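in:
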């Protein structure tokens, strides 16, 4: 027993992706999930993520989540929080609203729930955070901020809703050759107030996040390169009111909102050049792991608890030194419950022996 105050005891999956029905019990500290390609290791981590944030990390729509042969899925997860067991149930039926229950009580507002069970996930696809479109970097900020602020999450929901409505309005003005300034102002006002709040939260978040990120990159991974993260937002140059007023004509002809926090980005640099252009694969991976571990640190300090850490196939492309370092880290008291996937049980067993790991469980999906 490690006495880990926050952990998952058990997960029960019904029709979650490739799972028909499966019950899995976890160890409080380290869980190694092994099995052949396609057996469902990543899907299991995704189901854990789903339990924490009530959405899939890997599937953008819930439509993709139920088993191909069925139209519903269910997740039942027993969380243990300070010796108190809490049963989380998520029920989804195609065409119906998803339902979330904690100890049988229905959760009506998502914002009130998110952050109760904090978690950080690292998957092979995450290199898109560096290589891909800006939406992914906004999602990274949002995934962190939503976990520690219900106010942020509510503002984000309002902002996205108003943005969709405002864009539809601009489109209808254009198509019908009409314009109603008063009506547009109603949307502007709501967009501006939610956008300003989002901007302030992101700015404050980055002021704390960037120094943590830099110290992890240098101290944990011995990175010697000059690294930086720069916040790129329209709102850094002018007030949102002014931006909206000045871009009115442009918005009307583009039929969408051309300025705002929905276009924010993060610029990642290595020795003053974009990481995606000049970083080697190993450097990019180190950059990424530092981003995620900094996310972990910040969540941990904001929530005053150790988030779950989900590591999907992270050892690929890392040298033996870095792998050993990660093992020492996750085995230390600094982290709470950790879930690690790998195809090879023999490699995992060797790493467990080499690093003198004692409090763990190997979950072989091929044999249970
Ligand atoms: N909605 C779904 N219904 C049924 N099967 C699905 C669904 N979504 C994904 N799958 C299947 O689940 C299987 C397991 O996928 P998963 O990514 O979890 O495997 P894995 O064990 O992580 O494999 P790898 O070692 O290659 O990473 C895949 O064959 C995938 O096609
Ligand atoms: Mg996988």
């Amino acid at each position: 027993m490690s006495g880990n105050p926050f952990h998952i005891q058990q997960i029960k999956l019904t029709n979650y992706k490739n799972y028909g029905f499966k019950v899995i019990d976890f160890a409080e500290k380290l869980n190694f999930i092994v099995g052949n390609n396609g057996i469902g290791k990543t899907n299991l981590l995704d189901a854990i993520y789903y339990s924490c944030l009530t959405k899939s990390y890997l599937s953008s729509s819930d439509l993709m989540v139920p088993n191909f042969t069925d139209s519903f899925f269910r997740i039942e997860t027993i969380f243990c929080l300070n010796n108190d067991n809490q049963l989380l149930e998520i029920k989804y039926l195609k065409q119906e609203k998803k339902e979330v229950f904690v100890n049988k009580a229905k959760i009506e507002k998502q914002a009130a729930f998110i952050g109760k069970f904090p978690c950080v996930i690292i998957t092979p696809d995450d290199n898109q955070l560096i290589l891909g479109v800006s939406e992914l970097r906004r999602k990274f900020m949002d995934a962190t901020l939503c976990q520690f602020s219900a106010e942020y999450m509510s503002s984000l929901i309002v902002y996205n809703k108003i943005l969709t409505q405002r864009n539809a309005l601009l489109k209808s003005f254009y198509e019908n050759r009409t314009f109603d300034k008063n009506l547009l102002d109603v949307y502007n006002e709501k967009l501006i107030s939610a956008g300003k709040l989002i901007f302030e939260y992101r700015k404050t978040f980055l002021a704390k996040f960037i120094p943590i990120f830099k110290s992890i990159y240098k101290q944990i991974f011995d990175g010697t390169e000059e690294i930086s993260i720069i916040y790129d937002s329209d709102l850094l140059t002018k007030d949102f009111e002014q931006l909206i007023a000045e871009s009115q004509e442009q918005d009307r002809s583009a039929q969408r909102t051309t300025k705002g926090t929905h276009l924010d980005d993060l610029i990642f640099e290595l020795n003053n050049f974009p990481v995606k252009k000049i970083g080697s694969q190993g450097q990019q991976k180190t950059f990424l792991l530092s981003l995620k571990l900094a996310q972990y640190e910040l969540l941990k300090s904001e929530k005053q608890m150790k988030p779950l850490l989900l590591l999907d196939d992270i050892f690929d492309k890392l040298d033996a030194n870095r792998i050993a370092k990660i093992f020492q880290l996750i085995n230390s008291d600094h982290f709470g419950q950790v879930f690690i996937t790998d195809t090879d049980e023999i490699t995992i067993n060797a790493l467990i022996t080499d690093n003198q790991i004692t409090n763990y469980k190997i979950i072989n999906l091929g044999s249970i």
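note: The pocket of magnesium ion (ligand 2) is lined by residues 41-42, 312-313 (CB under 6 Å).
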